[in-house]
Amino acid sequence: MTHQVQLEDTEFWTIKSQFMDYTYDVKVHVPQEAPPEGGFPIYYVLDGNSYFHFAHDVIKLQSRNAPKTLISPAIVVGIGHHGEYEERSKRRFYDFTPAADQYVYPERLKGADIGFHGGAEKFLAFLEQELMPVVHDKYSVDQTKQALFGHSLSGLFVLITLFKRPDLFQYYLATSPSIWWNDHEIVGTAERFFRDGKLEKLEDKKKLLITVGSKETFMVDDARELYSLINKHRHLNLTTDLYVAEDENHASIVPTIMSRAFRVVHA
């Protein structure tokens, strides 16, 4: 970890991942008050370049009146990529998609240069073995209240994490997840997750919130179908909710639903 600078309630640093052979930009919001007994809840926000500031403002502003907002003081960790937009976009396809023997691309992506993909398992190892230990050592974290937030491809990664390593977080917040990736591969991953009985082995309960904008066409159908599949396997160890935000699209959905998503941690 390389410490860079601190401005008001936000720290900026970088961390080199040996798993990913890549250096990530990290932004951390730390509440100014003393931590509660047991530490602060924590939100890990993927695509931190785009969404850290939304998350920061939700926590900072709404935690001032927690009894009404149901948002308590919490740590926010934004995990971001460096470089220009095109470079960051290609990196997202690598970090947030699972490895596969072959890939099926939708028509809109055929012929597009999206770079390499299939690095999700390594990125998950980066989170668990490299980033989270540093965060736990550096800050006062309540490790029973840890949330992972992602949108689009990183929303897909939230689902991958739940179905591959459900013990890693307690709250999974998937916004407009790219369920379509590789011909809906994540649906098969979910089915294997339930078939293997991983829920029964969990020591604590998990919560999943799937959100999507009503104007996201096929992504709304995908979200509803996955939600229905999960509900077929309803279990006390996993609570799942679906929220369709009226009149919102793929670009507008995140600021619209972030308060709702973050309240899941305190529900």
TrEMBL record:
SUPFAM superfamilies: alpha/beta-Hydrolases (SSF53474). It holds the Pfam family Esterase. Keywords: Hydrolase. One of its GO terms (molecular function) is hydrolase activity, acting on ester bonds. Gene3D superfamilies: alpha/beta hydrolase. Coiled coil: none annotated. This is Alpha/beta hydrolase.
